[in-house]
Amino acid sequence: MPLPTGDTIGILADNLRIRHSVLPISAKSATRWARGLNIPKGARTVLYTGMMYQLIPYIAAMGKAQEGIEDSFLVNFIKLGRQVNKVINVSGFMALPSKSMQESYNRILVNIARLLQQAGVQFGYLYEEELYSGALIYDLGVDDVLKAHARKVYDVFKKYGVQNVITVDPHTTNMLRSVYPKLIDGYDLQVQSYLEVLVERGIEPRSRLDLEVVMHDSCVYARYENVLNEQRTLLKNAGVAIKEPADSGKFTLCCGGPAESLYPKKAKERARQRVEQIKQAGAAAGAVTMCPICYVNLQKAARGEVQLEDISNLLTQAYCM
Amino acid sequence: MALVNPDFVNEVKRTEEFNASACMNCGVCSAVCPMGLELLPRKLFRYVLLGLEDKVLANTETIYSCLLCKMCEANCPAQVHIAENVRFLRYYINKKVFKL
User: Please, which residues have CB within 8 angstroms of residue A34's CB and are 6 or more apart in sequence?
Assistant: First the structure.
């Protein structure tokens, strides 16, 4: 039996409404990546993580728990679990992330901050006051909960006089650049992905990488936000030869990740399909992603057959070392 | 026998962005769907336009399985806002069925 759709969405929406995130994450865990980077709190321009990279280890842990529940008698208890979760943070117990995975995803955020510093961008960070963007709740169509949450996110930016927001992933970019303006009257934030900022700043490589990678574009960057050239420009300038899989660029194939919260098995099947395309394009080269959802979903499906990396790892090697 | 709810399309359509009627039923969306959702969007949107609420609700899993990846939209010759239309249906089901 599949996971009960209404109760699963209900738990996620309750968490956003009550705890301001789809899966509860402590402020300490969410901000750990920024330790020692000397990023000021607040500023006219801020790096907004939207907590996606920090949440992935929790989502992965939850997905594993869900896979065990899907098609078992335990699905019958999800309705009860939703009622309990309103009072006691049950999803917090279910989603205990691995430490090494947290470190790996935090490193991506460190990479991005270092790249922006290298490009001469002055930016702040909202630390424990930063909130999740609500991307998953938007996808699931719980618009009333999302609208109230978006207002809270916007109010925090306004409290610190933020005018420009630099995002780190496609889903958060889409939320702040294309969705929030429809939800909030007078919305006036300028939003760019860090990839766009780096290209605009004309960042110069310090080392040539001389390697090949297969490019896996995010469907949100490609088809919602038209971020297609930046990742190619940055890699090509660093001496990286890009190999395109069968479905690429504007017609990139989704990694299946958006199905993960309700249909983990379907998500895995779609990811496997994409992994096969990547392998055909050149498995030996390895592949780059630029979205935490693509990264985790493809990595799980790749089973070590393809080396996957977040694009920020390569960019840091080329532009910061 | 199908029960027709003549107000169904108006209940689903909260803004002009819901443009299911632009669909000309060519089938490109189904052909390119990475999830292989044959039903989405053409049959499903037609059910909405015809007021066949029961038929739509019987396909809840399909509606929530859509990845919203817009592969269909990128190939749609009629510029149907497929992903947003699907989100409209989710909003409707969340409210009406799941009471969210």
Answer: A109, A113, A125, A127
